[in-house]
Amino acid sequence: MIAGLIILGIVVVLAIYAWATYNSLVTLRVRVDEAWSDITVQLKRRADLIPNIVEAVKGYAGHEKGVFEAVTQARAETISAQTPAEAAVAENHMQQALKSIFAVAEAYPQLQASQNFLQLQGELVDTENKIQASRRFYNGGVREYNTKLQIFPNNIFAKMFGFTTREFFEVENVAAISEPPRIQF
C-alpha cells in the first residue's frame, strides 16, 4: 500500500513537472516567435523606406545604375528572408548597398540639403536602431529558450514534446552592421 502511494506520488510529481516544463517551453517559444516578428516588421519598414531613398538619390545621380540595382537586389533579399540565417545574409548585403547609396549621395550637396532626403535619412537611422534592438531581444529570447531546452531534465521532456532549438540572428560580417549606416554632411 505504501509502495503504491509512493509510486503514485512520484508519477504525480513527474506529471506536474512535465506540465510546468511544457507550458514554460511553449511560453518561451511564443516569445521567440514574437521577437522574430518584431525583426521582420522593422526589416519591412526599412525595405519600404529604401525605394524612397533610391528615388531621391536617382533624381541627382541617375547615372549610378549599378548602385541602384544593388540596393534593389538587397531589398528583395531582405523581404524574402524567412529564417534568421537568410535574414543575416540579406542584412549584410543591405548594409553594403546602403553604404554605396550614401556614398553616392555625399557627392551631391543639393541632395544632402533636400528636406525630403534628410527626413528619409533620419527615418532610416531610427529604423536601423530598432532593428538592432529587435535583434538583441530576439537573441535573448532564443538564448533563454535554447538553455531551457538543454537543461536536464527539461531536455528529456522537450524531446518527448518535439521542441527543437532555434537559431540566433547572427550576421556574417559583424563589423558591417555594428552601427547604422554612417551619414556624413
Descriptive report:
This protein is mainly α and 185 residues long. It contains seven helices and no strands. It has helices at residues 2-58, 65-80, 84-106, 109-113, 115-150, 154-161, 174-177. Helix 1 (2-58) packs antiparallel against helix 2, helix 1 packs across helix 6 and helix 2 (65-80) packs antiparallel against helix 3 (84-106). The longest helix has 57 residues, at 2-58.
Task: Tell me briefly what this model is.
The chain is an all-alpha fold and 185 residues long. The protein is built from 7 helices and no strands.
Tally of individual domains: 1
- According to CATH, the homologous superfamily is LemA-like domain
Proportion in β-strands: under 5%
Q: Which shape, going by the Cα principal axes? A: rod-shaped
The SSE string, one letter per element, is HHHHHHH
CATH class: Mainly Alpha
End-to-end CA span: 84 Å
Described by strand count, sense and barrel closure, the largest sheet is: none
User: What ranges have pLDDT less than 50 throughout 5 or more consecutive residues?
Assistant: none
User: Which structural class is indicated by helix and strand composition?
Assistant: mainly alpha
Number of strand segments: 0
Give the second-level CATH assignment, the architecture: Up-down Bundle
Q: How much helical structure, as a percent, in the residues?
A: over 70%
Taking all Cα atoms into account, the compactness measure Rg is 24 Å
- Tell me the number of helical segments per DSSP (H or I, 4 or more residues long): 7
Q: Find the CATH topology.
A: de novo design (two linked rop proteins)
User: Could you report the average pLDDT, rounded to the nearest whole number?
Assistant: 83
